[in-house]
Amino acid sequence: MKFIQFTVDHDSSVKKGIISSEGVKEISGNIFTSWDYTGDIFKENQIKVTSPLEPNQVIGIGANFVKEPEDLPAPPEMPVFFFKPTSSVIGPNEDIVIPEDLDSVKFESEIAVVIGKNAKNIQEDEVADYIFGYTIGNDVTAPQYFHSDGHWMLGKAFDTFTPLGPAIETDFDLAKTRIKAYHNEEKKQDSNVDVMIVSINKMISYLSRVLTLKAGDVILTGSPVGAEFLQEEDTIECEVEGIGRLRNQVVKERKKVSL
């Protein structure tokens, strides 16, 4: 199933739905515990798709891909993780806003794992039981805000720096997918999970030994080689085969001038 969130013309309230051959079937309830159909069906041209969820927290992993399988190192004993604030989350077709004082901002197309229930001290072979589904994330990054000692959070934390969407796919074949990015319609990233240094099972198991993961947590699993810098008026489309495409535009923040 593909779960989405959306608004309808002249109604700012966010609705939940499932994509079907008939259109988007609205649902009510909690997608992680209990939900039901409302009976309302919307056509694509009637809705605006938003971020597919409001995460409890967003956790990313750093430098998790190589170019070729023969380049793979041994997984690190302590992977590099970082938090991204939920205030940075936006949905499809929303603007990525580059603050005026930033010189350079990168896109990073990623598979985003959505946790479905509390996970604490789980083993790698148990991870699948705790995953609700998968969506697409763009881990927008400002390297100039990386601390010289290796702290990354500030460079990941700006408003609009975590586009998510368009849907949460619960029927997803991780082994057969490819992660891609199209920068102004030119393909820049294209990779499968075979060149992921820390596997999704390993990273979620590791995190669960440090903190309790909860339903609605989002784990960004790393970006393939090929990420580049964004400029004002650019368009970036992140694609994960089997889920869809996440498209966003880039604008530059303009400071208000006092009169």
From TrEMBL:
Highest taxon of source: Bacteria
Keyword Lyase: yes
The entry's keywords: Lyase, Metal-binding
Coiled coil: none
Pfam families assigned to the protein according to its UniProt record, in alphabetical order: FAA_hydrolase (PF01557)
Classification via InterPro entries: Fumarylacetoacetase-like_C (IPR011234), Fumarylacetoacetase_C_sf (IPR036663)
Domain Fumarylacetoacetase-like C-terminal, chain residue ranges per copy: 58-251
GO molecular function: lyase activity; metal ion binding
Keyword ATP-binding: no
Name used for this protein in its record: Ureidoglycolate lyase
Protein's organism: Pontibacillus yanchengensis
